[in-house]
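Why do we care about 3D structure at all? Because function follows from shape, and shape follows, mostly, from sequence. That is the central idea of this module. The next example makes it concrete: a single protein chain, its amino acid sequence, and then its structure expressed as tokens.
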Amino acid sequence: MQRFDRQIDLRRLPRATIIGAVIGVVINLIIYGAARAAGLEFRAPVPPTNELMPLPVIAVITATVVPAIGAALVLALLSRFTARPLRIFLICAAVVLVISFAGPFTLPVSLLEQMVLNLMHVVAAGAIVWALVRYTS
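And the structure:
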């Protein structure tokens, strides 16, 4: 049986989620800090006026932790209702990552800022998926 066809251990899911979220947050904060030091502003529209404001650090943290929790819930549901939860999870994670690129690319900011924001999406996805697969299978 291949690794991605195995069932997962749901008891390990909370720990795996925390590990993935922490790794993603730390690396993304390093990227954010380096990019800010290099002069990027990371501006984003703020409702209700959609005026561009600097992206706060808490937004970077939230944008990593919330997807980690969502990914863990998806993996738990797939484990409950499918025969190959990891394989399906990896496919779903790849699709969601590609869709997530639309957010930064629609912002009225420089291409460099868009690329760095998308790099942060890749880092978050990579850390979360790696931890969930590594620690639950």
